[in-house]
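Re: that chain you flagged

S.,

Sorry for the slow reply, it's been a week of failed gels. I finally had a moment to sit down with the sequence you sent. For the record, here it is as I used it:
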Amino acid sequence: MNKNKQVGYLGPEGTFSQQAALSIVEDNMEIIPYPNILNIFESLEKNEIDEAIVPIENSTEGSVLVTLDALVYFNIKIKGELELPINHDLLVQKGKTLKDISVICSHQQPIAQCRHYINKLGKQVHTMSSTANAARYVTEIATAAVIGNEILSKKYDLEILDENIQDYPNNVTRFVILANHDQKESTGHDKTSIIISLNGDKPGGLCEILYEFVKENINLTKIESRPSKQGMGKYLFFIDMEGHRLDSNISKTLTIIKKKVKMFKLLGSYKTVEGALK
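Prediction finished late last night. Pasting the structure tokens below so you have them in one place:
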């Protein structure tokens, strides 16, 4: 009997990562919570799980840096992406009002995404390791509220006191689906991600690389630099582009770029996932 496919996500239960995982897996798949993103990558590399979904970027707060750094270190591929609208609610013990609340707690990301709302309330803020841990705290402390979602309210029997409290209405988190392989075939609606580092401090070095994409009319959807951790002023560049690595213009351009850079890593070609994982 074949075992069910196991998909890891950033836990514990009740997080937006679980919500993302639930939105893409089939009924016969098992989702497994992990305490941190590095543990997820380690389990994938050891083949302890088949796939995983982790946050990589938020439209308000920017990139999830631990995910970017893990993509550099581990030999893991991106095989899909999912954009999840993030709506934050204020949850309290049933029957409590804002007058009863003295502290608002949550993970640092939801707190950062609701700064204006929190400032207006003038309450103390308590940063915790996850929204789920914050919700558990609220079940014990009647004067506390948690910034979370509907899943948390149901799991911990909390009441939604205020809805959609995020500072920006179009708050979206981009998740990537990870595996030991990427999407092997081109669909015509794909993206490809790479990491590069440049050769020395040559003036215009990055412009030279970017011009290769211009020549082949390749649209870049994201460019981000991260310290290489090999000395001051030394950077890695994360580049996302439209197209699959097997598309002729992408394949030609990546072959040229490999010869011009100090380090090149293909993170994978993939498409946006709108239904269950296959």
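What I noticed first: The two ends are 19 Å apart (CA to CA).

Talk soon,
D.
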